[in-house]
Amino acid sequence: MKILVCIKQVPDMESKFKVNAAGNWYEETDLAWRMNEYDEYAVEQAVQLKTQVGDADLCVLCIGSDRVKETMKKALAMGCDRGFHIADDESHLKDPFAIASLIAGYAKEQSFDLIFTGMQSQDRGSAQVGVLVAEMLGIPSLTTLVEFSYADGEINAKRELEGGIKAKVSCKTPALVTCQLGLNTPRYPTLPNIMKAKKKELLSTPVAEFNPVAAILETLQVAPPEKKGGGLILEGDPAELADQLIKILKEKTTALA
Amino acid sequence: MKTLLIAEYRDGKLLGTSSELINFSAQLGAGSAMFLVGSENALPGYSGKLYLAEATPATEFNPGLHKQLILEVIAKEQPQMVVLPHSSYGWDLAPRLALALNAAQISEVVEIKDGTLVVPSCNAKLRRQVKATTDISVVTLQGGAFTPADDPTGAPEVIKLEATSGGDIQFKGYEAAAATAVDLSKAEIIVSAGRGIGKPENLQMIENLAKALKGEYGASRPVVDAEWAEQSRQVGTTGQTVTPKLYVACGISGAIQHLAGMKKSEFVLAINTDKDAPIGEIADVLAVADLKQLVPILTEKLNAL
Lengths: 257, 305
Known about the structure:
The complex is a heterodimer of chains A (about 260) and B (about 300). Chain A has one domain (about 1-210): Rossmann fold, CATH 3.40.50.620. Helices cover about 30% and strands about 30% of the residues of chain A. Chain A contains six helices and 13 strands. In chain A, the strands form two sheets. In chain A, strands 9-8-7-10-6-1-4-5-11 form a nine-stranded mixed β-sheet, with helices on both faces. A two-stranded antiparallel ribbon of chain A has the order 2-3. Chain B is an alpha/beta fold and about 300 residues long. Chain B has helices at about 20-30, 65-75, 90-100, 205-210, 220-225, 255-260, 290-305, and strands spanning about 1-5, 10, 15, 30-40, 50-55, 80-85, 105-110, 110-115, 115-120, 125-130, 135-140, 155-160, 170-175, 190-195, 215-220, 245-250, 265-270, 285-290. In chain B, the strands form four sheets. A seven-stranded parallel β-sheet of chain B has the order 7-11-6-1-4-5-12, sandwiched between helices. Chain B has a five-stranded parallel β-sheet with strand order 15-14-16-17-18. A three-stranded antiparallel β-sheet of chain B has the order 8-9-10, with no helix packed on it. Chain B starts with a strand and ends with a helix. The chains are: A alpha/beta (about 260), B alpha/beta (about 300). Strand 13 (about 230-235) of chain A pairs parallel with strand 18 of chain B, so a sheet runs across the interface.
């Protein structure tokens, strides 16, 4: 069985974001980078599937500068067999359509039985790439999964809907699934597995070799949201803060009445 | 400008998002038509053409079929924009339509600015103003961003569509939400724990503060996903929607899914180390502090009152 998992490297969302000089994305310096949280669930599910079926080849794909190889190594340490890196220093300027075209171009040649992606990225948050890849390949896609099982060429899964309701769905492979938070418990790579991952194949190919298509979505401006004001910001010593808060709760709410 | 609005229906009910689609289209100054796989017994308030296919177990969740039906309607109506809610239905269907139409998709629109659309990035810490370069675009709307002041009225002109079954995805029914042991929707005071509590042991201090305030404790999604708190405590889109008199958000950054579940609270106190956290946008008071220091002191002082 051939399995692909697509991951993205994103900044830690607790970071302070500054707009870049071109005004079309965030400034990439001074950020801590990690694997997109949704993709951690995708990698974990792919590794569990590989363990379940035994005879499987699990490839992890990532697009971006050389910096993203660190995140790919984490996926390899979690249990992926090999890495395929599409080297692109300008991947942040590509829209979901252009990114999906690159992935579909690679996946078409490889004929994967199953493709895992996160349901969205934490930075761009479009929730488009996975479904677009499946549509480009002409295979079914199940999105926003919080439960996944596979047997004999068939996927049975549950999609998360609003209000805690789930929809039970199934389809045949080849297929693509997008993973929601809470699908599983992503493992932490162990030290021996981190060491082993260093010897695994990690191929880099320049993006130009994939004949990238042009973006169809243009970014006009990036800016922090306008502060709506209103809220009072308090800082200082915890004990003094606590006194201030109690005073406010007494004056503005009935909580202490 | 003309839009095609894709309304949403589930398990015998029309979902409330159709009023947001109508309001968005009106704000753009566009004419519109609507599409729904639903029921004649649950029609939206709307004065316009509604293309309706009957929802059956085989057609209700069937993205391939919905795509085909919508493409037929688009061929007739020739809209420049297809608008869906940014929901589990909308974000699943939108890219399928976008690719078939060679259209750019704009996800999770929060605002119309100078005739172009604005979307959030990086956990709402940034906003991007974007423009589709294609003749037709597909747009999804963030829940609540275009809620109208008054619900739209009117009776739609219904045009029936024939929905066949089939397709490569089988829908096998719904699983109800887990029974909620705690009904947070009736709580007057809620103290909620977010990822910022750091480790499961620290949930106790949140519970203690809730007790000191004679309220219930809640949790954000990451805390529930990490199994530090039960799902029945979850506040947000996929958990409970709450409207307490006081909501204390401890270590909650304020992802939109969480805000959607608590923004109607009368008074919001946020405790967060990050002054720029999006929770600050809706908090009446933001105490910039480490909750692990502030919460125990606050609890102690409250207990001493």
